[in-house]
């Protein structure tokens, strides 16, 4: 019969009910370990600390916070970039995550590493996720896990402590937007019809949502960033547009020809606008966009229901179809991951484009007709008739 155990009021100490003896209890690498310590509770309690140290390593007492490792961490990043283990964009991304961690999590600079508990890390995980996306949160978790690796190297915590903390410090689930990855986007001629329908409906309502439609379509920006663009953010001479309040930080895009034309026409329509005024006169056109999509469907055109963000998806897909590389597209979208997100989320191409590209796909060289043998030269003295 298996031994029955009952937990005592002392952590990691169990009482064997059938025999009356006391056992130490610890869980290592997912496996529960029990070992007999003594006949009496008091004797077992005295042996328990040394037994725990023998199983999971001595708790370190060196004092210091995670923030005290910042300089060491930055030096390590620079070294990895110098050796090619990290590229410049990845280094920059990790530094941005670190800055966000320091700004949102006070415990980073107040709690001594040796006193860190899973509850501290879980609280950070929840707090960070409420402000940032799942992928951005996972980037911050990676940085903190690297800090814990440094903490072990420098003797702030034992290997067992680090493993125990990391076990509970898991990554958050990323729910990728498969709708935008698989939706059948409208073809360019349908987009032209959609744009006309939007402009007509805005004129009927007496609104100016057509400017927002063109801006989102021609810039690829998010609606939140578009609503925070001021006239002073446009550099007409350099041909650039600056986004100051984007999801992943500030970034700049070129004034693409259609985007420049849109902004020039809007500037003429608002001659009294000041540099500190917002560029776009409306903040939303979703109701107009939805009704325009329904109109096109009623006319037999293939146009799914679109949102503000789907116009960004249209921009990205059109850029991919025209051969824009992933790194450049990522910069235009304000991403900071060298195109990894763009490849995952915006890699879906229209079916017609996929079919046209497939027609050019060939693994083996095409068979060539054998060359005709060259006739021998005519013999000397041969008549013209015989040649």
Give a quick rundown of the structure.
This protein has 387 residues and is of the alpha+beta class.
Structure characterization notes:
The chain is an alpha+beta fold and 387 residues long. The protein has three domains: 5-56, no CATH class; 66-168; 180-353, Orthogonal Bundle (hpI Integrase, Chain A), CATH 1.10.443. 50% of the residues lie in helices and 8% in strands. It has 17 helices and seven strands. The protein has helices at 41-56, 70-83, 88-104, 107-110, 118-131, 134-153, 159-168, 178-182, 188-205, 209-219, 223-226, 257-269, 286-298, 308-321, 326-333, 340-345, 351-358; strands spanning 5-7, 13-16, 22-28, 31-38, 234-235, 240-243, 251-254. The strands form two sheets. It has a four-stranded antiparallel beta sheet, with helices on one face. A hairpin with a 7-residue loop joins strand 6 (240-243) and strand 7 (251-254). Helix 3 (88-104) packs across helix 6 (134-153), helix 10 packs antiparallel against helix 12 (257-269) and helix 10 packs parallel to helix 14. The longest helix is centred in the middle third of the chain and has 20 residues, at 134-153. Mean pLDDT is 85; it is low at 381-387.
